[in-house]
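User: Please predict the structure of the protein below. I'd like the answer in structure-token form so I can feed it into my own downstream comparison script.

Assistant: Understood. Taking the following sequence of 89 residues as input:
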Amino acid sequence: MVVFVHPQDARPHAGQGHGGIDVVHGVNVYRAVSDKVETLAAFAHDFGRRVMELDEPLPVNMFTGSKLVNDSELAELEQLLHDWPADKE
């Protein structure tokens, strides 16, 4: 997804690591630099651990029916959640 924002309205959030900014024809163009599936896995893992207080990963079916991910991305997401390394806690 690309969002066009006039340079006067730009409020970059430096250091957050979620996106990048390019200037095209004097307009700031924001782009994601994080992988979508990896970002969803991190969100689901964090939500399950901190909010739901689960020791096991959230079931990937919570994303089933989403227009955000397709079947192959769901499979990748499920694998990422299942294989989440302990040192990423």
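That's the full token string. The chain has two helices and three strands.
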